[in-house]
Amino acid sequence: MTFNNKIAVFIIYSIILISCNGQKESTFDSEKWKNWEETESTLFLRWEMRNDLIENYNLKKLSKKDVIKLLGEPENESKDNFRYNLGPTGKGINYGTLIIKFENDTVKNYEIHNG
Fold first, then answer.
1. At residue 10, what are phi and psi to the nearest 5 degrees?
2. Does 10 have pLDDT greater than 50?
3. Strand partners, 85
4. DSSP string of 64-94?
5. Are 67 and 100 in contact (CB under 8 A)?
6. Which of 86, 95, 104, 109 has its CA 20 to 30 A from that of 42?
7. Coil, strand or helix: which one is 98?
8. How far apart are CA 110 and CA 39, in angstroms?
9. Which DSSP symbol is given to 37?
10. For every residue of 6-61, which 3-state class applies, written as one string?
11. For 12-80, where are the E strands, in sequence order?
12. How far apart are CA 49 and CA 41, in angstroms?
């Protein structure tokens, strides 16, 4: 393998490693979610659990009380919205947020923002 080929392989390998950063999936754990603190070892915890939460827990139609039982108190809330910090997304400096929208104290919809 020539020197130029070695450099090309190294660059491709580096790009693959960088693009995979922060994309690990984790099983949702209500207690870990509720007790999450943004430390170096748990930085991506909520972001990594988000897909399992959305795919395996039917958030729609839950009451505010049920959401708090599952996810804990939101970091920010208004009359019709709960916002949960998901931490860094692993894509640059982007942070994720789970926004749960209520209508008559029942989940109407939810969104995940990363930006």
1. -60, -45
2. yes
3. 97
4. HHHHHHHH-S-SEE-SSEEEEEEEE-SSTT-
5. yes
6. 109
7. strand
8. 26
9. -
10. HHHHHHHHHHHHHHHCCCCCCCCCHHHHHCCCCCCCCCCHHHHHHHHHHHHCCCCC
11. 76-77
12. 15
Which tens digit of pLDDT belongs to each residue from 67-83?
999 999 999 999 899 99
pLDDT tens sequence across 30-66: 999 999 998 888 989 999 999 999 999 999 989 999 9
Rounded to 5 degrees, what are φ and ψ at 9? -65, -45
* Sequence-separated (6 or more) residues with CB below 8 Å from residue 26: 45, 48, 49, 52
Cα atoms in the Cβ-side hemisphere of radius 13 Å centred on 102: 17
Q: Rounded to an integer, what distance in angstroms lies between the CA atom of residue 93 and that of residue 97?
A: 13
pLDDT at 19 over 60: no
* Total residue length of the chain: 115
